[in-house]
From TrEMBL:
<dbReference type="GO" id="GO:0038023">
    <property type="term" value="F:signaling receptor activity"/>
</dbReference>
<keyword id="KW-0812">Transmembrane</keyword>
<protein>
    <submittedName>
        <fullName>MOR1B protein</fullName>
    </submittedName>
</protein>
<dbReference type="InterPro" id="IPR036179">
    <property type="entry name" value="Ig-like_dom_sf"/>
</dbReference>
<keyword id="KW-1015">Disulfide bond</keyword>
<feature type="domain" description="Ig-like">
    <location>
        <begin position="1"/>
        <end position="94"/>
    </location>
</feature>
<keyword id="KW-1133">Transmembrane helix</keyword>
<keyword id="KW-0325">Glycoprotein</keyword>
<dbReference type="Pfam" id="PF07686">
    <property type="entry name" value="V-set"/>
</dbReference>
<comment type="similarity">
    <text>Belongs to the CD200R family.</text>
</comment>
<dbReference type="GO" id="GO:0150077">
    <property type="term" value="P:regulation of neuroinflammatory response"/>
</dbReference>
<dbReference type="InterPro" id="IPR013106">
    <property type="entry name" value="Ig_V-set"/>
</dbReference>
<dbReference type="InterPro" id="IPR013783">
    <property type="entry name" value="Ig-like_fold"/>
</dbReference>
<keyword id="KW-0472">Membrane</keyword>
<dbReference type="InterPro" id="IPR007110">
    <property type="entry name" value="Ig-like_dom"/>
</dbReference>
<dbReference type="GO" id="GO:0009897">
    <property type="term" value="C:external side of plasma membrane"/>
</dbReference>
<dbReference type="InterPro" id="IPR040012">
    <property type="entry name" value="CD200R"/>
</dbReference>
Length: 177
């Protein structure tokens, strides 16, 4: 989320006749970008301004998505027609959202770790290791907040460290309740 993404359209044809990007997001309507070489003409149908050719399509057919959002997730197909034949390349774009990590002490003095609004859901573990059952809150937009409570077996619990693992990175935070 927030970064730019580039999808290349490798093709075997030296002389492109027609080039089309067909975009089918999980949410929202389909869109397409097209290029017709004999007229040196481009067109776009229902695509947001954040999606466009990286350069000129007659030079480089790469699709650039600026400031990627969850709504950009979906299938992207590049189709090329030329004298050597028709070629296509398919992508499935998955958008990762890194969670925001916070820690606090509950009313009983137990540390609680919160990995907020990540996509996919983060994994939480503790040092020292404890059996804890995380709970999840689904936000309905593909993001999930995960909570985990560290329950000490005695009143002199050591400083506990929460470790959050996610495909976009790993983080840790400690607190002494």
């Amino acid at each position: 989320v927030g970064n730019s993404s580039e999808l290349t359209c490798d093709h075997k044809s030296q002389n492109i006749t027609v080039l089309t990007w067909k975009i089918s997001p999980k949410a929202g309507g389909h869109c397409s970008l097209g290029y017709r070489a004999d007229r040196n003409e481009t067109n776009r149908t229902n695509c947001s301004d954040s999606m466009n050719w990286k350069f000129r399509p007659d030079w480089d057919p790469t699709l650039e998505i600026r400031q990627v959002k969850i709504a950009h997730e979906g299938n992207y197909t590049c189709e090329v027609a030329g004298p050597e034949g028709n070629f296509h390349r398919e992508y499935h774009l998955t958008v990762l959202v890194p969670p925001r990590l916070t820690m606090y002490c509950d009313d009983q003095g137990n540390p609680v770790c919160k990995a907020a609004a990540g996509k996919p859901a983060a994994q939480i573990s503790w040092v020292p290791e404890r059996n804890s059952t995380p709970s999840e809150e689904d936000h309905g937009n593909g993001t999930v907040t995960v909570f985990s409570k560290f329950t000490a077996y005695n009143t002199k619990a050591p400083n506990s460290i929460c470790i959050v693992s996610h495909p976009s990175g790993n983080w840790s935070k400690s607190i002494d309740c």
